[in-house]
Amino acid sequence: MTNALMSAGLLLCAKIPIPLTGLTNRLAELLSLPPNSVQNAFWTIAVGAVCAVCCAVAGCFLVLRKMSLLGDALSHSVLAGTAGVYLLTGQVSPLPMLIGALVAGLLTAVLTQFVHERADVPEDSSIGIVFTSLFAFGVVVVSQAKGVHLDLDCVLFGDLALAGVNLNPMGGYLWPAAFRTLIPALVITLAFLAVFWKELKLSSFDPVFATTVGISAGLMHYLLTTVVALVTISAMEVVGLLVVALLIVPASIARLLTDKLSTMLWLASAVGVACTTSGYLLALWLESSAAGMTAVMSGLLLAVAIVLSPHEGLLVRAARTVRLRVRICAEDVLAGLFRQQERSSTPAQPVQSSRTECLKLAGGGLLAAPALRWLQSSRLLTGTREDVRLTTQGTRYARSLIRSHRLWESYLLENFNLPADHLHDPAEAMEHYIGPEMQERLRDELSQPAEDPHGRSIPD
Amino acid sequence: MTAAILDIHDMTVAYDRRPVLWNIDYTISEPGLTAIVGPNGAGKSTMIRSVMGLVPMVSGEVTAWGQPAGSQLDRISYVPQRGSVDWDFPISVFETVLMGTYGALGWFRRPGRKQKALAAECLERVGMQDFAQRQIGRLSGGQQQRVFLARALAQQADLYFMDEPMAGVDAATERIVFDLLRSLSEEGRTIVVVHHDLRTVAEYFDNVVLLNVRVVASGPVATTFTSDNLQATYGGRLTVLDQMAEAVQKQKETT
Amino acid sequence: MPGSQTIIVLLGTLLLGIAAGLVGTFAVLRKRALVGDVVAHSALPGLCVAFMLLESRSILVLLSGALLSGLLGAACVSFLKRVTRLREDAVLGIVLSVFYGGGIALTRFIQNTWRSERVDLESFIIGRAATMLQEDVMQIGIVLTIAAVVVVLLFKELKLVSFDEQFCRVQGWSSTGLDGLLMLLTAITVIVGLPAAGVILTAALLIIPAAAARFWTDRLSHMMMIACAFGGLSGVTGTLISARIAGLPTGPLIVLTAAFIFVASWIFAPHRGVLFRAREGLDTSLLPWVAERQEDDGGAA
Question: Which one, A10, A254, B55, B141, has least CB within 10 Å?
């Protein structure tokens, strides 16, 4: 860690320019912060964003193909790969390490499948066996590699916060060192997506059909695994094992919000960037780990998505249920009043009822009062506390309900093997769901009945 | 008046808010053999699964001997369609059959000599005594089916539900299953079988329920198993019901 | 002659291995192997919060916090599976990584806030079996006793729910209750294992010995005993190797020993092992050369 800081400092002294210094300095002025800190923050956020986009895009396919745990397993076995290369070559240089990690990643995927299929071990156990063993191997080797820079802490905790400080010269400028692997990973991921878009889409959705039209599902699986391994390795330099959070959580959030693959990719990327950025800033403020806070933020965003998602959020679902229940209570009041009116001596006149009576008709529960309020505000009921009546509109609504009820009873009698005294309850439940169109269909099906099974007329 | 053995009243069952069984009313007052018959997707399995409490009901109630069915589970046995267990589980045929006695044993008590004798006897009744120590996955489909029947026998229940015990089994197993059903029935037990083979219904069963998302007809085979009723059962789905199911699902839809 | 510290560690890892084998058998058979992993990862924030709130380094306090948040993680898994349409694999990954992230964030926060005090929360991530105390061994022993008593008393019920959950339910047993009990056993085993094996590797102790034991037998009771033996053996062997070679971490060595036992079982076990199957011609595709040799032998004879 101090090493990285020092080397960055040395390079700064060498006066190699850092891109966008003008912009970051202006920002620093605006926020009245020291220019250095703004510059660091800017590049950390940039690295985090690139990392988040790679992970989110790859993660979408992991989530869709039910391979999320492979991401977890890969991230653990990467250590074994670098450790293995160290054992073989006795030195630490970036490219062989990268290749070693990639091989370990692919080995994890192959071994997991192999142990599951060949040893009859359940799939979850097989994942658990493979990645923990490889990780254990990695830890053992690393523990022996004293004096050599094989950073276990970096794997375990990630050091996103240093990504903006740890700069390397490239093309005459100083760039964050993490870009060296992250940018190629991003380019490869996007190129992979562009080239194999329809194959990926098809084989994720329907692998059997994909195979029948000549797209090898197995090949796609291993290509994708390679890309995921590459992304995982590059991202791990920055966020460590917490790469799993960036792979799976943004993609899952996007999955909850949309059904369209392309939208899902955009959304997941945006969510990922939001996670790394907010996580980093929060960590700065709380003096905590940026990678850790990124994972925490992703969890919080997921919670928000679960509660507030516009289509299937818990809130929307609860609201819909309440609305339906209120409507059913209200309709019970209308139907009840209509039946009283029917039985009265003056069936043409709306009967007089009281609020207490109406609440009872509505079932008397918690939703009875809102149901009455709804009836009055939509002008289906009028009147005061002791004199409540159906309006003309209300009568029309109620008549339609009674029509639905009696049509359904007739339909049940005709098609179901039910005794006559068992007809009312089912009809009472179904009347709320029968619209004008259904009424038409039932009428035609029953050849335009005039009376229900109990001999009461079916109103128009 | 003694309570009916089984009374299903106004049972409606929905999957994902979409009704798949409508207002089932059915009563069994006499012991005997009943077949549930109907086309694919008629909800036959769903019907017995919800009676057993494995699928929740939207409305209705099920009683057995006058009590809620859930409180009488020690007198009811259910044989599911094959394939619901982990065939690679480290368990022998004999141990599987012995599981039938667990319900009567209650918490903590281990099966003793009496339970083991019963399990051996049940295994013999289905002709599987030679396979007692075999691991459960190393049997043919028909043999596995017979093991699960033996387990049901070991429950010594008064009311049996069986989900297509004859589906895809060999002729020997089919023979054994029928003999078993007959002898259970002669012992005064009640058996309800989801059955797919229309040709054998009249031969083997006392009562029949014709089901196609609702009960089309039910009663003694002689009077119920008529070509008119079969026509009504198999003559296509009621499109009105499909539409209603759709309407209910859409309005209740919260996803 | 090993020193007294080595004896404590040996005893601790032995007991831990046995407990993990016992509980892991059910976890593997019930297809809940990774739940242990989730519990272990979710335990980390609880450890930290327990430390922050009570400012105590007593291992019992820390582990109580760990247990609570581990169970919270497991509860999150079932909650997410119920209310969203996310698949099980995604749900496990989410809970695991978010809780672990929370743990890392809290660990770093504690390090920066309680600077003066030496807080060794990090050792919970990889585990420090070598510094195990008598107290730790006691705890593992207590958990092993609890697990053994529960498994002996409820062997029939646990067998039933693991084999055929549906039959369990239609016989009137509470499968949720039994599953919850298994969950709880898994959780306490994982939690007492944390100081020794660490967040990341504890799951391996549950899974690998049990999966290896499955090769040797077709009976649950035997599988359980073999899993306990393998677990204990891995614990002892791993500890002894790490005591021999200075600087080798104990936890990972235990896992590697278990993995070695798994591979050996896979190859050599009768009936289910690779060699046996290849000889029986059941699985000729796996080791073609064995099959070929067999054919050669046949031709020669």
Answer: A10
